[in-house]
């Protein structure tokens, strides 16, 4: 490329900025000190983000006697520390919502399931109410029917009848009651297993 090319005329260069004069560092804010104040120290409570400027010797002296909680009582300090756990934001105790607190089924209302289900005949309320875990006409499973047969009970026997029959059979077939008869030992085990199965399934 030639030195008298037209492209050289289009080149523009930036002018060098004049360097701004450097500002002198601030002097120490300690009374009677003329040294450079290059070290920051916090002003104190209710003045966050504000700082004093001290020299190295005086910032050490200032920090030795600095107390953020100066002027506060022990109760006010404890309250400040408690509020600091939540970032000084207001909090509420669980269950202050009156509609959730007074509701009979709190978990359903909070999840929204209770409002979505239409129950004009009250079937849900009946299931939630206290009473026998299983209806009397429920079809028995094979193990449950076998347990009732083992205890010589009808399928619609009440909880009191099951417990009474269990006590009666245990007394009858216990090894201490029948003189250690081996023939009754298997029957004794079968009665205990049958009662435990009925108890686990909510019949007694």
Automatic annotation (TrEMBL):
Highest taxon of the lineage: Bacteria
Keyword terms of this UniProt record: Chaperone, DNA-binding
Domain J: 146-203
Region (Disordered): 1-33
Start-end of Basic and acidic residues biased regions: 1-11
A Pfam match: DnaJ
InterPro entries: Apopto_cytoskel_mod, DnaJ_domain, J_dom_sf
Gene Ontology molecular-function annotations: DNA binding
Ranges that cross the membrane: none
Record keyword DNA-binding present: yes
Keyword DNA-binding: yes
PANTHER family in alphabetical order: DNAJ HOMOLOG SUBFAMILY A MEMBER 3, MITOCHONDRIAL
Protein name (record): Curved DNA-binding protein CbpA
Taxonomic source organism: Rhizobium metallidurans
